[in-house]
Amino acid sequence: MNHFSKEELGHLSRFRLSLERSESALSIEAANLLDPDFLSRYLIEIQPKIHSDRLNVTGSMLVKRYAFLAAMVLFSMTVFGKKMNTDPLNLTLETDDKDPLWLPSFYFHSLECVSAGESRDAWRDEILKDLFRNHLSKIVNIVSVKARISKLILWENIVLYVVWMYNTLLANIPEYVTIEQIQADYVYVVKEADGELFGEGMKNPFLPFYREQGQVTRQTCCLYYLTSEKRDRCSTCPKHCLT
User: Fold this and answer.
1) Going by C-beta distance under 8 Å and a sequence separation of 6 or more, which residues neighbour residue 24?
2) Which of 81, 94, 128, 235 has the fewest CB atoms within 10 Å, i.e. is most exposed?
3) Is residue 211 helix, strand or coil?
């Protein structure tokens, strides 16, 4: 087992890594979100923070916030060559009650990490399986049912942050990783990775949205505009022209 350096933790904080717990009633163990009854109650509890009284909007915003976990873990994989422990039992979702936007952070009970061994490909597959199949996919499935919202919208929320992270890396390549490594991981995640790594019986959820040269065309609206007083839409919204 390895650990992250102080500098590496600083980089991961950009993706809402938290090194401290909060005392907010909305700070919860991530594993609790895998309990459908708990998740239903939690959606109702966070609605005032999201400024919405519609469960489908709240569910979309929860997954959109949660998508930063995917960006963080894949950044660690590609840039630092370190596998974070994404077991839901190892994470808490932390809320700052003073934050008017409800942008929760992630606290890891253990920040021990695993470096790639002789087979980086197998190590990379293990990261995707733990992150998506064993964690995010389960949350997406439960949110979809309890909030009555399409899985397509929820997966797009995750896809866009992962694509944003890789495109940001390609535009500003850190000194300790090569452009070849960034491109290889990027293409693998969004095009080549087997769908089973993302969930049982699934196809790669990035494929419907990814276009060559790293372009992503959003097909659905995340419903963010329903939480905004001015009905502002995201820049990638397919309904942007209607505002």
Assistant:
1) 94, 95, 96, 97
2) 235
3) strand
For 66-114, the pLDDT digits (tens) are 999 999 999 999 999 999 999 999 999 999 999 888 999 999 999 999 9
pLDDT in tens, 175-204: 889 999 999 999 999 999 999 999 999 999
Q: Which residues are within 8 A (CB) of 234 and not within 5 positions of it... i.e. 6 or more apart?
A: 218, 222, 224, 225, 240
pTM check: above 0.70: yes
Q: Are 140 and 151 within 8 A, CB to CB?
A: yes
b/e per residue, 80-100, with b = 16+ CB within 10 A? bbbbbbbebebbbbbbbeeee
What amino acid occupies position 151?
Answer: K
Q: Of 66, 48, 221, whose CA–CA distance to 143 is shortest?
A: 66
